[in-house]
Amino acid sequence: MADPANDPLTKAAHAASTELDDDNLQRSISGRLLFFYVLGDVLGSGIYVLIGAVAAAVGGAFWLAFLAGVTVATLTGLAYAELVTKHPQAAGAALYVSKAFGRPFLTFIITICMLSATFAAAGSLATGFSSYFAQVWELPPPLLIAVIFVASLAVVNFIGITESVVANMVMTFVEVAGLAVVVLIGIVYVSRGDADFSVLLEFDTDGSPVFAVVAGVALAFFAMTGFENAANVAEETVDPSRNFPRALIGGMVGAGIIYVIVAMTAALTVPIDTLAESDAALLEVIKADIIPVPVGIMTTVFAIVAMVAITNTTLVALVTQSRILYGMAREDVVPGVFARVHAARRSPWVALVFSALVVTTLLVVGHTLDAAGIGGSDGVVERLATVTVVFTLFIYGLVIVAAFVLRRDERPADTFRAPTSLLVVGVVGNAGLLVYVVVDDPTSLLWCAGLLALGLLLYVAERAAGRRGETRPPPGADRRAGEVQR
Questions:
Q1: What is the pLDDT of residue 163?
Q2: Which residue, 439, 430, 460, is CA-closest to 224?
Q3: pLDDT tens for residues 393-404?
Q4: Is the pLDDT score of 378 beyond 50?
Q5: What is the pLDDT of residues 141-172, one digit of tens each?
C-alpha cells in the first residue's frame, strides 16, 4: 500500500494549513509562546455568543456544562499532543487519519468535515455579532448586519494574510479584556456579600440534571474548539515533544478555568431567566450595574468588545476555509479555480468569495426558516453551533481512534504518550455527546448532509472536468511556465 502521507488528500490538507508560499518552516515558537497561542485560540467568542443558550438548557448550574466541556476537550487534546510529538507536521486531523487508516476518501471526508465546521461556526458567530450590534444600533435588520460582517472579513482576508494575523493578535487582547471585566464584576459582587451561591447548584429542568448538563455541554463544547489549530504550527515549535503537550493542555485548562469563572459570575449576578432570554447574555452582566461606571457607557463599550471578540474568531474561520479550499485545489481534489491567487494581494480570492457565499447562504436559509417558524425553537446561533459541534465531535473522536491505531508504529524515545485510560474516556465522551446531539436535534443531520453534499459536489466536479496530470507552479512563480494544456 502506498504511503498514506503522500496521497493527494493529505498533501492538500497540509498545503491548506500552511502559508501560501512557505516551503521551509523555522522552529521559532517556544513553549511559552505556544501556551498563549492555544489560550488565545480557545478563548474565542463562543462564550460571548452561547452563554445564554447554555444557561437556558441547564439553569444556574450551567457552569458545570463548561467544566464538562473543557474536560472532554482536554482529553481529546491529549490525543493531539501524542500525535503531534510523533508526527510534528502541519495538517492536523487529516494527516493523522491518513496515516492511521490509509484511506484517501476518509481523509477527504475529514477535510470536508473540518471545512464544513468552519462554515457553520462562521454563520453562528455572524448572527451573534448582529445581536451585539443591535445594542449599539437597532435599526439595521440582523440578517443584513450578519451578511455585511462576513463580506467585510472576506475583504480583510483578501487584503492579505499578514494583515489578518496582525488584526487577530490585536483582537485577542480585546476579547480577553472583555472577559476580565466580567470576572472583575464577579469579584466585586461577591466581595459585597450580595452573592447567593445556592443558585450555582440549581437545575431548571423537569428531567434528570445529568441530561440537563449534557444538553448544556453540547452547546458549551462550541466554545472549547480551536485548540486543534495548534497542530498546524507543530513544525514551527521548538522541541515539540517536550513543549507541545505542556502548552496544549496548559492552555486548554487555563481557558477552561476562565470560562467556568465567567459562567459563575453570570449566574450569580443576573437572573437565569434573563440570561436565557438574552441574545447577548454577557451584556446582561454589565447591565447589572455592579461597578461604579455609567451603565450606558459600559453597555456600549462591552458590546463593542464582544463584537471585536466575535470578529476575531470569525476572521480565523474565514482564513481556514479559504486555505483548505486552496490546498485541496492545488492537489486536484476540488476544481482548480479555488487555487487562483490574486496577482497583487497574493490571496486565494476565489476560495474567499466562495467561502463567504456559503456562509451567507447558511445565514439566509437559517433566518428564513426562523421567520417561517420552521426548524424548531432554536435560533440561527444555536442551530449552526450544533452543526459545528456535530462535525467537531466526529473529528475529535476519530483523532483519538487514530492515536490508538498509530501506536502500532515504532515510538521515538522522546514521544509523549497519553494515558490510555484517559483517551478511552475521551473517545467515549465524544461519541456519547455526538449521539446525544443527533438524537436531541436530528435536523442537524440535514444541515450536515447539505454541507457534505457541497463538498462531494466539488469533488465530483473536479473528477469529471478537472485537468488531469497538471502540475501547478508554486505561488509567485511564472504561471505560464507551469501551464499544461487540456
A1: 57
A2: 430
A3: 999 999 999 999
A4: yes
A5: 999 999 999 999 998 888 865 555 566 667 77
Q: What is the pLDDT of residue 161?
A: 57
CA distances from 19 to 227, 320, 481 (A): 19, 11, 22
**Torsion angles phi and psi, residue 26, rounded to 5:** -95, 135
328's grid cell: 485541496
DSSP symbol at 47 = H
Amino acid, single-letter form, for residue 50: L
Cell readout for 323 is: 486555505
**Grid cell of 14 as nine digits:** 497540509
Among 131, 140, 150, 107, residue whose Cα is nearest residue 358 = 150
* Type of residue found at 431: A
Are 477 and 341 in contact by the 8 Å Cβ rule? The answer is: no
Quote the CA–CA distance of 302 and 182 in Å, as a whole number.
Answer: 10
Highest mean pLDDT among 20-34, 47-61, 150-164, 420-434: 420-434
DSSP 29: B
Retrieve residue 399's grid coordinates: 483523532
* Better-predicted residue by pLDDT, 308 or 44: 308
469/486 Cα distance (integer angstroms): 9
Gap between the Cα atoms of 92 and 84, Å rounded: 8
Quick one: residue 137, left, alpha or beta (phi over 0 = left, psi -120 to 50 = alpha)?
Answer: beta
C-alpha triplet 41, 45, 49: angle, nearest 5°: 155
- Helices 104-133 & 93-101, crossing angle to 10 degrees? 160
Per-residue pLDDT tens over the stretch 340-375:
888 877 788 899 999 999 999 999 999 998 888 776
Q: How far is 15 from 261, CA to CA, in rounded Å?
A: 38
Within 155-302, strands assigned E span: none
- The grid coordinates listed for 135 are 445594542
